Amino acid sequence: PMIQSGPNGAVPHNPTGTRVLQAGDNVVVDSVITVDGFNNDLTRTYAVGQPSPRARAAYQAVREAHDAAIAAARAGVECRQLDRVAREIITKAGFGEFFTHRLGHGMGIECHEPPYLHGANPEKLRAGMCVTIEPGVYVPGEFGVRIEDDVLISDGGCEVVSRDLPTDMTDAFDRHPGLS
User: Which label site among 27, 36, 81, 148 has the fewest CB atoms less than 10 Å from its CB?
Assistant: First the structure.
């Protein structure tokens, strides 16, 4: 997994460093697991203690964008439409300039594969596709926030394959007492 904290989380897929966790940090945990030749891709953001009000507001915007995109995901929806759903929520919350990547991507044999869920892709989702929904906010020098889930597209909507992994921003030390 990639684990980034505080200002290091403001750069998606930032290289590993030696920074020590500090009170108030957001901690972005991105993991890929391969089973029987197929990949998953999940990200959660936790807090060390209480996040700043701005980090909490960004988290709320990302969570709303994540949930809205999942609610809109179904066969026949264009990738660019799904990206727009999430991007509009984050922009309305005042963090639009900090949503610097596509909403998501297909996955399966490769971790990142078509279709790519970005604002210029007119490709329509099809039943049976597995894609990520991963809106994020990355404020340079401060913090990053991303929530990423894997969803299986169907005609009537989608199934969140990773639904059992909580998305709340609970203090990492409360959730995992062995860290303290």
Answer: 36
